[in-house]
Amino acid sequence: MKCLLGTCILPLFILCVSGCSTGTSMGWRKLLKEAAEPPLPQLPTVQLIQGTDGQRVAKVTNRMDQPIYYYGSKATSPSTYVEEYKWGRWVDTSFDWCGTGKSKYTIPSHGSQEFHLFDFDRHTRIYALFSTSDEKAASLILLNFP
Q: In which domain of life is the source organism classified (predicted)?
């Protein structure tokens, strides 16, 4: 049986130290390689919109007939995985982790959720991991389009 989000992989991120920070020493793509296989049967759509306060917002819409789940510090702040364009290629440089814990959130069937994104430039990609309720299928979804 493969370990996914909350059972094996996520504790590596959230149980290391107390307080919230950004991890950079491990390549997150290596840690999540098995978590995103098999992929979700139908991928959510992402639309970039301008928030009321001028902040960039990614609106994620679940196109499946079942809810999808993600972990985050709050409903509008999912755990993110960042790639940066360096040395002529995309490099997985950082991920959110929190020693005090992350909660599991839901996007209902055919529902949407807005996520507030930190400032980014065209050399940065921001991903979030979404899964089925049993965490047997998951996909990394690009939240921004640099």
A: Bacteria
Rounded CA separation 61/46 (Å): 7
User: β-strand 80-86 against 45-50: which pairing, if any?
Assistant: unpaired
Return the structure tokens found at 139: 């996909």
- Picking from 41, 122, 115, the residue whose alpha carbon sits closest to that of residue 72 is 115
Q: What is the DSSP string of the chain?
A: ----IIIIIHHHHHSSSSSEEEE-SS-HHHHHTTTT-SPPSSPPEEEEEE-TTS-EEEEEE--SSS-EEEEEEETTEE-EEEEEEETTEEEEEEEEEETT--EEEEE-TT-EEEEEPPP--TTEEEEEEEE-TTSSSEEEEE----
pLDDT in tens, 1-44: 233 444 333 333 332 222 334 444 457 777 776 666 788 999 99
Number of structural domains the chain divides into: 1
> pTM score, two decimals?
0.76
